[in-house]
Design goal:
109 residues; alpha+beta; 5-stranded antiparallel sheet; 3 helices; 17% helix; elongated
Length: 109
């Protein structure tokens, strides 16, 4: 699955870089976060819940509406123009991998 898009923020590029590489700030993007463990400035573990009720209904397992996901995330790149964050973990007996890439560009005023 591939999601991508563009959005603009009215802050200097170095400020945007600080935000998207701050583990506490980026973890706020997981609204169902139940546990966050910082390993070091480039790695963290997160436990969060995911709503799978639509898929569960189609499979007639309605009792399984939420699953708990535990993942380990690592910043692979933290440069002014690009940030890469990868996560891997397990959920309901399956492995799960996420790769998030941010490209930071400055625009003329």
């Amino acid at each position: 699955m591939d999601f991508n898009g563009t959005f603009e923020v009215s802050v200097p590029a170095d400020h945007a870089l600080r935000q998207i590489t701050d583990i506490n700030w980026i973890s706020a993007c997981l609204p169902t976060l139940t546990e966050l463990k910082t390993i070091n400035e480039n790695e963290f573990e997160a436990t969060f819940k995911v709503d799978v009720s639509e898929a569960a209904g189609k499979l007639h397992i309605e009792y399984l509406s939420q699953v708990t996901v535990k993942m380990k995330f690592k910043f692979l790149k933290k440069e002014l123009q690009q940030v890469v964050l990868e996560g891997s973990g397990r959920v309901v007996g399956s492995s799960l991998k996420i790769r998030i890439e941010f490209t930071v560009e400055s625009k003329a005023e």
